[in-house]
């Protein structure tokens, strides 16, 4: 039997549950994987938190993206344990680890036991520790999927060695100490400094449950059936608009059409970052002083409203924009189709928070980066971007207008050719890797074969 030329699932079609951590970057990359599995005729149930499940249905055409696999793709919601009005952004997103362990875990076990057809495999976010235990108890093999880069995965993995060798904790926030080189992350000796470690390593309290949780989840991956690392990306280039938790504003694409080639610096700090108003003012003045064109996108709720407040509702400071009604910049308060923006010929650079998805998307688009990391793996990503891959400049911990002006001029003017051609070369390698003969293409084939062999 066939539907639209595709075979219908049969009793031997394997059934996979995909379960991301409830945040945009995790959902985006795991939905891409879901699509690839459906394309290979595997049945996929995609499990979101109830909160994101509703948003995904509200703001995206995810149903139409998967409409070609009506018999193969299902979406379900599960409680994340937080109240609806919790911000789920900034550092507070970490509250999810605790709430999911207490509320979601037992529900997850019930779901694994009751879902039909029965599951053959669970692909869970490797940042969550409980799915491996729970699925293990009911006898379902688990594959871990990490949405962070291999370099940050490895850094988390090595943290117990850093502690044992006395390289952690970091002794205060002095410049000299932050610049101290770390030697116990094999492969990163000589360039990884204290300030480049995952943000959870900052501060003296290493018993911090989030850091411990992240390290133990990382080490736990060795017990999973397999580990998928999202290191060469963008497995489906044309469906960028189909997984957003915010409504997309596409007006900026029209504005970009009117700008000269590679003249615009795109500025966006992702789906979780919450910024201090002072930092925004410094970035704004640095950008204006650099005299470069820019497109700055600010997500709703991405600015601290007031200290200690739970609701970050404020948006871009209006008085800044009013003073400069120029043609050379555009400020959007909302959410844009980032991959399309990065692919636009007018974009010549990206000022990014170095989230892993943004980093991968920028590499594939061949655009050089200025990195201003906020937290988690971003400190590591920005160091690799600048020092190892040499695809951009890292301005971490120095959010001042003079620094912004300097790095923007360096990226968009002084080193434009050099960084642009390195970025173009890396983009070629990335595209090659996802082709049928590339490393990612071959790994995907092997994964699908493995899942088929799990059919019970
Ligand atoms: N994104 C987008 N439009 C925006 C901002 C972000 O489409 O205006 C997407 C971006 O393309 C990426 C994801 O949101 O796929 C953000 O993930 P990332 O890992 O970069 O950062 P996080 O949001 O998890 O900090």
UniProtKB/TrEMBL annotation:
Keywords: Glycosyltransferase, Transferase
EC number: 2.4.1.-
Reaction(s) catalysed by this chain's protein: an anthocyanidin + UDP-alpha-D-glucose + H(+) = an anthocyanidin 3-O-beta-D-glucoside + UDP
PROSITE patterns: UDPGT
Coiled-coil region(s): none
Organism: Linum trigynum
Record-given protein name: Glycosyltransferase
Top-level division of the source organism's lineage: Eukaryota
Family, per entry: Belongs to the UDP-glycosyltransferase family.
InterPro entries reported in the protein's UniProt record: UDP_glucos_trans, UDP_glycos_trans_CS
Pathway per the UniProt entry: Pigment biosynthesis; anthocyanin biosynthesis
Gene Ontology MF annotations: anthocyanidin 3-O-glucosyltransferase activity; quercetin 3-O-glucosyltransferase activity; quercetin 7-O-glucosyltransferase activity
């Amino acid at each position: 039997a066939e539907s639209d030329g595709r075979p219908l699932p049969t009793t031997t079609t394997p059934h996979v549950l995909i379960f991301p951590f409830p945040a945009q970057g995790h959902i985006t990359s795991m939905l891409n994987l879901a699509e690839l599995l459906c394309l290979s005729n595997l049945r996929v149930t995609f499990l979101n938190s109830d909160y994101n499940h509703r948003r995904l249905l509200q703001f995206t055409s995810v149903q139409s993206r998967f409409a070609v696999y009506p018999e193969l793709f299902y979406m379900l919601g599960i409680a994340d344990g937080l109240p609806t009005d919790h911000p789920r952004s900034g550092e507070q997103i970490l509250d999810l680890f605790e709430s999911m362990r207490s509320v979601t875990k037992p529900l997850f076990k019930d779901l694994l036991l009751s879902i039909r057809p029965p599951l053959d495999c669970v692909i869970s976010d490797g940042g969550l520790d409980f799915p491996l235990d729970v699925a293990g108890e009911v006898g379902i093999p688990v594959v871990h999927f990490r949405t962070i880069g291999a370099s940050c995965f490895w850094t988390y993995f090595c943290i117990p060695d850093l502690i044992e060798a006395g390289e952690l904790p970091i002794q205060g926030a002095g410049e000299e100490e932050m610049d101290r080189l770390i030697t116990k992350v094999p492969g990163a000796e000589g360039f990884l400094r204290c300030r480049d470690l995952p943000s959870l390593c900052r501060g003296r309290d290493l018993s911090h449950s989030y850091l411990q949780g992240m390290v133990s989840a990382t080490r736990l991956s060795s017990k999973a059936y397999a580990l998928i690392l999202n290191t060469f990306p963008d497995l489906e280039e044309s469906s960028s608009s189909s997984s957003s938790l915010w409504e997309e504003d596409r007006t900026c694409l029209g504005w970009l059409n009117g700008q000269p080639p590679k003249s615009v610096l795109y500025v966006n700090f992702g789906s979780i970052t919450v910024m201090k108003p002072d930092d925004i003012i410094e970035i704004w003045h640095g950008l204006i002083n650099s005299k470069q064109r820019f497109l700055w996108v600010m997500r709703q709720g991405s600015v601290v409203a007031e200290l200690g407040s739970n609701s970050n509702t404020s948006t871009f400071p209006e008085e800044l924009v009013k003073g400069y009604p120029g043609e050379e910049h555009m400020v959007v308060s909302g959410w844009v189709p980032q991959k399309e923006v990065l692919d636009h010929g007018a974009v010549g650079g990206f000022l990014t928070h170095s989230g892993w998805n943004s980093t991968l998307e920028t590499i594939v688009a061949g655009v050089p980066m200025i990195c201003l990391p906020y937290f988690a793996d971003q400190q590591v990503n920005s160091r690799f971007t600048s020092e190892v891959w040499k695809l951009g400049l890292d301005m971490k911990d120095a959010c001042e207008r003079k620094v912004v002006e300097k790095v923007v001029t360096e990226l968009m003017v002084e080193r434009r050719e050099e960084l642009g051609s390195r970025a173009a070369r890396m983009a070629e390698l990335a595209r090659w890797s996802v082709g049928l003969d590339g490393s990612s293409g071959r790994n995907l084939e092997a994964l699908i074969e493995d899942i088929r062999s799990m059919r019970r």
